[in-house]
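Project standup — Tuesday

K.O.: blocked on the structure for the chain from last sprint. Re-posting the sequence here as requested.
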Amino acid sequence: MDQLRNSMQYIASGRASLATEVAGDGETVVFLHANVCDRRMWRAQFDRMSATHKVVAYDRRGFGETRAEPEDFSALADLVAVLEATAGGQPAILVGCSLGGRIALDAAIRHPSRVGALVLIAPNVAGAPDPVYAPDIEALMKQSKQAEVSGDLERLNAMKARLWLDGPLASEGRVAGPARDLLLDMNGIALRSAPFGSDVDIQPFYHRLDEIAVPTLVVWGELDFPYVQDRCRHVVAAVPGAQEHEMPDVAHLPSLERPADVTTLVTEFVRRHAGTGR
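H.V.: unblocked you, prediction finished:
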């Protein structure tokens, strides 16, 4: 990483100081991380795209280097604070995974003038039907709940890697090496985080996806939870003109598993749609 081109900002939002990494110049691309990661999940994409765009990645409350005093808050308002500080008043391209995807979708619906395009990887969708699990996946979810109740953070962290990195449709330990080490480090920080409050600004928008009017790419892995895959297909069907891409042999976190492939997907989509949003 070229440290001369990167800078850290600590952006105030309520009682939080959001650790925000910024690099490059040009149209702004903002990366929003999953709920078991922090901004480091986007390292490959961030570094590659900083050559052609202004890239921004921040840690949400309870993750990475962000510090927050306990309070009720809005994750969407935190994103808006980051956009106000980094995007120069212009629409930004939002790239979000999982819960980060939910925040990106929410921004496109409630703050459409701030969003120029969306890349959504296995996004959450507020108001979507509750998941229904097959018996084998239900057993894994019970193990995860037991680990949470036990208070054994190492056990819980390992279970999160089993579910979200390996994927419930694959064997435990399928993804090893640096990707697993990074996931365990990122989620370990989140699990040990001090209480920081609750997001009180989650408004259902499952029924409003047809209001999104910017170029949208939805990506998911074939080894992810079936309900996540179904939800992604619904987003593709509901968002006008949305494109889809299913990645083989990948679960919920393809930017960790297949960083080069995700970088190519994101950069090609952004290149095709740069400047076409509002």
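K.O.: great, moving the ticket to review. The mean pLDDT is 95. The CA atoms of residues 145 and 156 lie 8 Å apart.
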